[in-house]
Amino acid sequence: MLENSLPFQTVRYLNHVLGGEAVRAGADKNKTAQFPYFLQDAYEVWFGELFGQPVTLACVKGDQPLAPEQIEQHTKRMGALVHTPVIIALPSLSPGERKQLIARGLAFVVPDRQLFAPQMGMILTERFGVGPRPKAISASPATQALLVWFLNHHPVTQTWHPSVDATALGYTEMTASRAVQELLQFSLFELDVRGRARHLKLIGDRRELWEKAKPYLRTPVLRTLWTYDLRIFDLMDTRWAGESALARLTMLNAPQQPVIAMTADAAQGAKATNVFFEPRELADGIAVQVWRYEPRMQDITINVDPLSLWLSLRDNRDDRIQMALDELEEKFPW
After folding, report:
1. Partners of 117 in the β-ladder
2. pLDDT at 62
């Protein structure tokens, strides 16, 4: 009976359309207890991760009607309490209600129908019965990481089997298979089948691949934390990032406040050693970027890889940054 509940249906649907390991979530009574009673009465809340990013699934209880205005208020309240993206799960949704939720930019999911989560780079088209797999508007973090790995580590190879490189980035073969499907959906490679193995064949050259991939790629930075604790520099999991890395790779002057990058797991490990982080910028503090994927693409350097660095800064409007990014691209060994 529990497997037919909305939370189970939601997780099952997301893992079906995004891949078997996309979502890991479950109930947490201690976290739910911090919610006001009206939220506890309206939603069954599960906490977990979506592609490694913290997420909260707020599943509407029963068939109680909730106006889009109410859902917007509830989403903001829950987001302020848990400090993660909130996705509202609904058993059904009329076209008019769906339109209003989209207009408000609210993330929602209707199992076996639709996922709208632009904040996390995903909009999946509606499914009525059996149909083609919906397309994401941007690559998943794992797919982006594998593509960046390819560009950093395969300067000559024209065919590629992502499963071979997935282990180096901590991904499973299933995740690599999902990445292959995404890269083919984006028409970035052609499929080259060799027996049971699915290889990807490069279309054009590597620079053309990079330019075609840009619209599907996003910043690797999940969030930025701040600390005064200098022990953060002693962690093996860190790399210079942001303007600090850009200054080491181009003619840009180094920033006054250093910037480093690490994974969410590494950040948790730092907290376990009593490194204290603040969510807001600290004067003279150290900026610690928490990345969606592994920032240590290259073992021979103390910087994040140049392509991920470019993606992390491309929306910066500072002319100095943009000129340095142009220099960075031109220096890359295409």
Report:
1. 122
2. 78
pLDDT at 153: 92
Residues with Cβ within 8 Å of 299's Cβ and at least 6 positions away in sequence, in order, are none
Q: Specify the CATH architecture of the domain 141-216.
A: Orthogonal Bundle (1.10)
Alpha carbon 273 to its chain centroid, in Å, reads: 26
pLDDT digits (tens, 9 = 90+) for 115-167: 888 777 777 655 433 344 444 578 999 999 999 999 999 988 778 989 889 98
- Residues 233-270: pLDDT tens digits? 988 889 999 999 999 999 999 999 999 999 999 999 99
Which of 13-22, 64-73, 137-146, 195-204 bottoms out in mean pLDDT, i.e. has the lowest? 13-22
With beta carbons less than 8 A apart as the criterion, state whether 217 and 151 touch: no
pLDDT of res. 125: 55
Distance CA 313, CA 183 (A): 23
The three-state DSSP-derived secondary structure of the chain is CHHHCHHHHHHHHHHHHHCCCCEEEEECHHHHCCCCHHHHHHEEEEEEEECCEEEEEEEECCCCCCCHHHHHHHHHHHHHHHCCCEEEECCCCCHHHHHHHHHCCCCEEECCCEEEEHHHCEEECCCCCCCCCCCCCCCCHHHHHHHHHHHHHCCCCCEECHHHHHHHHCCCHHHHHHHHHHHHHCCCEEEEEECCEEEEEECCCHHHHHHHHHHHCCCCEEEEEEECCHHHHHCCCCEECHHHHHHHHCCCCCCCCCEEEEEHHHHHHHHHCCCCCECCCCCCCEEEEEECCCCCCCCCCCECCHHHHHHHHCCCCCHHHHHHHHHHHHHCCC
Average pLDDT over residues 291-298: 91
